[in-house]
Structure formats: C-alpha cells, structure tokens
Amino acid sequence: MRWEELIWNKKYKMRGQTLVELLIAMGIFVIIVSGFAFFVLDSYVSGHLAQEITIANFLSQEGIEATKSIRDHSWNNLASGSHGLIISGNTWVFQGIQEDLSSQLKGGIREIIVEDIDSDRKKVTSRVIWEFLPSRTQTSSMVTYFTNWEKTTPYVKQLRYRWRNDDGGE
Description:
Blueprint: H1 3-73, E1 81-83, E2 85-88, E3 91-94, E4 99-100, E5 109-118, E6 121-133, E7 136-147, H2 154-158
Antiparallel strand pairs: 1-5, 2-3, 4-5, 5-6, 6-7
C-alpha cells in the first residue's frame, strides 16, 4: 500500500468516526436536557398544586366554621341538603345549593352538605371542588358532626347541683 492511500483511508475513517461521536454526544445532551426540563416542569406543577390544595383546605375549613356559626345562631337553620354560603348582616347563612369560588380557584365551587343522623345530631361535609388542569379536577373535603347542645337531654334533668356557702350550709 502506498503512502497516499494510507493517508486517504485514515482521513475518511476519521470523518465517519467523528460523525458517529457527534451523534452520540448530541443524543446524550438531548436526554440530559429533556430529563432536566421534565424535573423543572414537574416541580412547578407540584408547587402550583400544593398552593391550590392549601387554599382549598382553608376554604373547606371556613365552610365548617361558617356552618358552626349557623348552628350556634339556631339549630333549626341546619336544614338537610346541599347549601352554598354567603355573609348577610355580618352572619353566615345558607343560600343556594353551592357557592362560586372561581375568584380563588379556577372553576371552584364549595358546597356544604348537611345530613340528619337523628333529631339532635347532624353530619356536615364541607367540599371544595376546582379544576386544576382542563382534564383534572381536585377535591378537598372536611367532615364534622354537630350536636344540638341547647337541647336538654333526659338524664341532665335528673341531676341536682348543690352549692355550699362559706359556712358549710346548703
């Protein structure tokens, strides 16, 4: 083999080898960049979801507290069914079957569901539903049980309290 042929073959072998190395390097770069982009976007979505869940949990808790205020005002105001909430005259009242929360959460609604257990106990569920993504709705719910604390139970009537004066008399 002549000297020119050796140089010619070596020159073309190196060019092909460089192209393969370049393709491998580009493939590794694309894999690393796409993995990094996935983690950045996923952390953004997770952070945004956590923020919305926190807001929804506060709104669910507010629904429970508002219902407690309605109960404290009058036990008879806790009608069974699904309710929305409004503030009227500085007090919470039920209105409609749900409440629009779209100013706080995209497509958000809150509903207070009151269920009778018996005449003196009720189960109250405060549920917030919103649209996190167009195809993904989220829900936050809190449940509590209320008792008609103003109504006297039969055994309480039988109790008698005695108070003693300082001199030991009754």
